[in-house]
Amino acid sequence: MPEASPTCSTQVADQTWWATVLLKHYGIQASLTPLDGEYDLNFAVHQDGGRTHVLKVMRPGCETSLIEVQCQALDHIAQHGPEVVVPRVVKAHDGSRFVSAADRDGEERLVWLITNLPGRVYAQTSPQTHSLLREIGATLAMMDRALEGFAHPALGRDIKWDLRRSGWIRDATGLIDGAGRREIVERIVAAFDDDLLGRLNALPTTAIHNDINDYNILVDASTGEPRLSGIIDFGDMIDAPAVAELAIAGAYAVLGQERPVAALAALVAGYNGVRPLSDEELALIYPLVLTRLAVSVTNSAIVKREKPDDPYVTISEQPAWAFLETNSSLAPDWVLSCLRGACGRAGHPRSDAVMGWIASHRGRFAPMFGRSLHGIPVIDLSVAGPASPRNPFDLDPDDLDDAVAEAMGGADIALGRYGEPRLIYTGPEFRRAPYAGSHRRTVHIAVDVFIDAGTEVRAPLDGIVHAVELRTSPLDYGGVAVLEHTTPDGDRFYTLYGHLAADVITRLAPGQAVVAGEVIALIGDRAENGGWTPHVHFQLGLTTLGRGADWPGVADPDEAAGWMALYPNGAALLNLADEETAAVTVATDAVLPQRRKRFAQNLKLSYRRPITLLRGYKQFLFDQDGRTYLDGYNNVPHVGHCHPRIVAAAERQNRLLNTNTRYLHPAQVDYAEALTSRLPDELSVCFFVNSGSEANELALRLARAHTGAVDTIVMDAGYHGNTNTAIDISPYKFNGPGGRGAPDWVDVVPVADPYRGPYKGTDPEAGRKYADHVRAAIERVQARGRRVAAFICEIFPSVGGQIIPPPDYYRHAYSAVRSVGGVCIADEVQTGLGRIGTHQWGFETQGVVPDIVVLGKPMGNGHPIGAVVTTPAIAASFANGMEFFSTFGGSTLACVIGREVLRVVDEEALQARALDVGTFMLDGLRGLQNEHAVIGDVRGSGLFIGVELIEDPDTLEPAQRQASYIVNRLREHRILIGTDGPHDNVLKIRPPLCFTREDASHLLDRLAAILREEPCRV
Ligand SMILES: Cc1ncc(COP(=O)(O)O)c(C=O)c1O
Q1: Of 845, 828, 821, which is closest to residue 713 (Cα–Cα)?
Q2: Separation of 914 CA from ligand 1 center, angstroms?
Q3: Given CA atoms 71, 72, 78, 83 in this order, what sign does their dihedral have?
Q4: Ligand 1 centre from 721 Cα, in Å?
Q5: Which of 156, 440, 522, 602 has the most Cβ atoms closer than 10 angstroms to its Cβ?
Q6: What is the average pLDDT value for the chain, to the nearest integer?
Q7: What is the dihedral of CA 48, 50, 51, 53, to 10 degrees?
Q8: What pLDDT does residue 5 have?
Q9: For residues 944 and 757, what is the distance between their CA atoms, to the nearest angstrom?
């Protein structure tokens, strides 16, 4: 933001005039286009090869020293920091760095020319990644280092964007609309006056750019990963403390970021890696970021008064207000802990001293319960631990009581771990937003001791009561006390005791001294301790955050490092080794190399940054740290991951019996009845197997037995399984990498794809025309002197790209196949059981009845169940004497689970929900299609949805890179979808059917944001 000056003019550019000046003084024949510039004129210089230079025409009366300082600084950087990309000054014919030329009004102006740098401004860069911010930080540090020896008299000038002069806004806050907003700025300016200014003035000064705003950083995103391509506009350079440079850049780095502190930490870490910051500089960064933003919004308030009708002012101040309104009350200690952590330092300046003293006294603290805690049971409440709640969205306190009691195994005392990610914190106060799947706090940053309510709690060491409260909200602390302690060297720290009996507020009072071993409270019962199984939450803290007893006891896993540095493991105060209370974390880093060692390389892993998943519930999944992921992809858990009814049915049956089909059991017939009752009457005989592959194998055997023929017609890009014959009928495999082409008994017909195929959806005859290819295949079989055994295809081709074939296709195709005695097999592995919303099965949408239906994936909600259902006649042909037996197929357990899945589908009306939510999602996706050229087609039915991405609407060139980008970016937003189609350019959305409209909105919202990012542009 340039200096405001009454002498500046905002004269309109006259490109032709200045092009003549450029030719005259620099010998460059070029066309000019105006660039932004508040006071001076800036022109982009275009020659044949594109944009080459920037011509800068200063305001009339501009002092030469203002250009001199910039020219010299740019030269200095080029010489002392050549790795920092800044414009070069181009000399005029006469060898000077700037010339004087009259404008059209005859006023003399200073004119200079610099080289053009590639890239877009950071403000228009999306996404603004942390790695880019790290690079910006490192580059600023290099630049500041290069500028260290640079001096010029103009650097001493007085400008209002000097952070040390920020106090000027004090008298202007009255111009800010809204009491809340005014109060934020007043608070910031008071802190600046009281504390910051003095500390800033105590720092040495050096030449700095002083205006690293989001329009002065250039970024090149052409290679996919955005990289810094240059720094421009040195017009506000001054001598100031170097930390001001970083704080100004930080004020822009935090804007629009979902995790602004992490973004700031990335910038600071990049800077510190090159030019190490002192502890004091680190401590000043965040308060200065707030100061800079306060100056910026106050300045906007002034400009708004001057230009009340300019909507741009309100728009441009919006990100700063958005940040200040949500983040200005962030705990400064935590922010500093994050910044220090990012720079490899202990999170709190007192950390080392306090923790050193505590560790050296381990074993000598008064026992909190009058006894040793060594060797007592430890309750595993981790994400996948045995005491993890059944419903990770709604903790049932009885459930937790039972789990803890079971884990205690009759003991009267047990520990709960520090740093353990847990899914027991289910109240809305633990979530970032009301949406169930939003980020939540899971990591326990204290140690628990589970023990009977009413047990006395003793202070481990001398202290003074800092705070005592009764916090009565559900899942809060109930009775809670904080003691303040001081080491012999005067280093302060605190201990917090949560879930105490309510009478703690009468036992203790702030300021009261307590001595080691003194009873300070009793353990609370569920009625008074926030509703928890009786225990004490014992937390060591280096700070109270100035919030009395209102400490966070649980941290968001993505922010846990900063919190854990402020609230370290208090094991030593319990006279325990740190390992005795430390969380046992899943070594996710070790899983990947182990997997590579133990499995073949063609076992594919989803996402560039793979996810470890330990827990599922309905449409959500959880990783090892308890991060929630919305599952928009997995159709196997048809009624929802770990649906309680399916889990209960499986548990019950596992206790009773699980054996095979050679014995009578009502569950088998019950399941077969339930399944066939959902199918047309003709399809009445079931075979139970364990997978879709096995079911397809069997279906082919049935067809061959019935027809006496072998030759099979398949649809291109189809997939039917991983066994030998299933691969033989899967063009997706035999024509894919490593495939050996179609066997001589297989004929491939084109995918009946109304978007990419030869006959488009607009053609009313498309279905028949695609079916004509089936006729042609039949003729090819006959020409070989053979007969057709079967026509098999996925009713809605899934790996083919989530395709809905045109109407009548199956009517024509099936009648052609049947006319020569062939059997029609419908692979409904992906589509069955209500997923498509309008119907239970895909074939019903086209009014056909197959001869054999193949089922798999969703049937067992994750339990391996496959089935073939056919007509009595075909079953009779197959019953030729050879026994059919599948050891696990139709096991008692499988039948019980499969039956329960059907009940849940019906009782939870999941087919209707698939239709409702799917239609909502399709509408939303079509809305996005209207806005984004990359979306070529949106198709689907119910919750079977495909979004085809293209580079070009005429050629339909597949946009595979964008599809991969979107899927990986959604993964970063913790939403799982996949890609499919022969070109891998189709977004595949096929969630569990319990998916809600709210989930769909969340997905659409995130997808919309990603589609606006640079790599999605076509
Ligand atoms: C349409 C279709 N049929 C069959 C199969 C094979 O099923 P499974 O992996 O259970 O063997 C799949 C698997 O993805 C499939 O999508």
Answers
A1: 821
A2: 21
A3: negative
A4: 5
A5: 440
A6: 95
A7: -40
A8: 35
A9: 20
CA 288 to chain centre: 29
Contact 969, 1013 (CB under 8 A): yes
Q: Does a cis peptide bond (omega within 30 degrees of 0) precede residue 992?
A: no
Q: Is the pLDDT of residue 630 over 60?
A: yes
How far apart CA 638 and CA 831 sit, in angstroms, is 11
- Residue 928's SS3 state is helix
Short-list 635, 629, 605, 633, CA closest to 617: 629
With the most atoms of ligand 1 within 8 angstroms of its CB, the residue from 635, 693, 725 to mutate is 693
Per-residue DSSP letter, 859: G
Amino acid (one-letter) located at 716: D
Residues in the ligand 1 pocket, defined by CB under 6 Å = 691-693, 696, 719-722, 794, 798, 827, 829-830, 856-857
Give the Cα separation of 42 and 233 in Å (integer). 11
Q: How many CB atoms lie within 10 A of CB 605?
A: 11
d(CA 347, CA 331): 13
Closest to 114 in 3D by CA, of 249, 218, 12, 17: 218
**H or E element, residue 900:** helix 892-907
> Which two three-digit tokens encode residue 921?
């999602």
What is the reported pTM? 0.94
Beta strands (DSSP E) in 225-337 are: 227-231, 238-240
Six token digits for residue 166: 């920020």
Whether 495 contacts 539, CB under 8 Å = yes
What's the pLDDT score for residue 10?
Answer: 42
Q: List the beta bridge partners of residue 620.
A: 617, 630
SS3 484: strand
Percentage of the residues of the chain whose pLDDT score is greater than 70: 99
Burial code of 195-218, b = ≥16 C-beta within 10 A, e = fewer?
ebbebbeebebbbbbbbbbbbbbb
- Cα of 720 to ligand 1 centre, how many Å? 5
Task: Report whether 340 contacts 333 (CB < 8 A).
Answer: no
